[in-house]
Amino acid sequence: MGSVNLDLLEQVDQFLSRPGQVWLLGAGISKDAGLPLMWDLTARVVALANGKPHYKALTSLQGELPADAHIEHILSHLGDYTALAQRSNEKKVSINADEFTVGDLDAAHRAIAADIASVIRWGYKVEKGVDPIVGTPDAPIVSVDHHRRFVRALCDTRQAGVADRRGAVQLFTTNYDTLLEDALALERYAYWDGFSGGAVAFRTHRFGQPIPDSGFRANVIKLHGSIDWYMSDEGHVYRVREFDLYPAKDGRVLIYPQATKYIATQRDPFASQFALFRDALTNAKENVLVVCGYSFGDEHINQEIELAMSAPENKTTLIAFCGEFGSLPATLNTWRNETWGKRIYVLSEKGLYAGTDGPLYPPEPGQEPHNWWTFGGMTQFLENGNGGSI
Q1: Which whole-number Å values give the CA distances from 325 to 110, 206, 340, 366, 373, in the listed order?
Q2: Which of 105, 159, 162, 373 has the fewest CB atoms within 10 Å, counting from its CB?
Q3: Cβ distance 317 to 287 under 8 Å?
Q4: Distance separating alpha carbons of residues 190 and 211, to the nearest angstrom
Q5: How many CA atoms lie within 13 A of 277 on its CB side?
């Protein structure tokens, strides 16, 4: 390997030790923990709906969407139709030739979100060539070990002796599971998530308010909601435990923003979460945005990243741990060719991309592909630096 390649790997290593870190974490980081990727989750939720009252609405929505649409696309489509139904005279709409009322659609959302929460809470592991492993309340299969290793590497290895001077690491995630929060708590790192209280908590953060600037090692901002968030009929957001009888579980599980019920007000958790993401990327500091487990399939998130990084005054560096699966995501390839693409580094199984260059440092002939793009591989990079990857 040439010295230039080594210098670039060392540069990435140094970026991962800088202050001002913003992380974007997607479903891929929880796969080894026993949770499904989005398309497997979609198939499971559709299977669970079979025979239930909301199955017709779910399959009608699915019938209008592309074959590769997943459950978040379905929920978004459902939200759009609910808004249309609420504005219509008859309070109903036709979806794929089937007619549904506002009540039908609202009930469908509640049921779908509840099934998602159940799958994520207990686990559902899909491996090629074998039957899926289904977690249950009596036999959950979800493991927090991988996340604990990650937060140790991030908060100890990378911030040893300097954590007090660097402030909290910003952890943005599209995941509904609670593994990041659980791992931080088990490793005894104080974190902020916008709630106050204990096992039962209420949301105190409001749209437009800043994140606390001291007292925490990490901030956890869940862009698409959580399996333990509920909105009461009064519009209050609570974080609750699964088996408690209080508060009443007749409110909706807050998973993925929709056109209905949620508007950009102080009570809207989704608007405030994305506002925090935008603020983290658009400040004048030399931020490092690190991405892992995210396939760049969410246009809302992609737009926020692109708008921030393309601003003339922006100094954010993007480091993406990302599998290629034939090629890099189209969004990443487009960005790499922009004028600001020189601030993009991608670590995949084929090597390191720096701007338009790459893949640099490909695996030697006969050598296994790099595992950088996996959650475990990225964690190993945090623990050992580029020396642990060579």
Answers
A1: 34, 40, 25, 19, 11
A2: 162
A3: yes
A4: 14
A5: 27
Q: Tens of pLDDT along 294-312?
A: 999 999 999 999 999 999 9
Helix pair 55-64, 71-87: axis angle to 10 deg: 100
Domain encompassing residue 119: 38-134
- Taking the C-alpha atoms of residue 151 and residue 173, their distance in angstroms, rounded to an integer, is 14
What are 368-389's pLDDT values in tens digits? 999 999 999 999 999 987 645 5
Phi, psi of 66 (to 5 degrees): -60, 160
Looking at the fold, whether 67 and 182 belong to one and the same domain comes out as no
**Bond into 53 cis (ω within 30):** no
pTM, two decimals, is 0.93
For residue 13 the two structure tokens come to 């290593």
Same domain, 271 and 310: yes
Pair (119, 167) in one structural domain: no
- Bridge-based pairing state of the strands 225-231 and 237-239: antiparallel
Which 3-state string (H, E, C) describes 2-38? CHHHHHHHHHHHHHCCCCCEEEEECHHHHCCCCCCCH
173 and 316 belong to one structural domain: yes
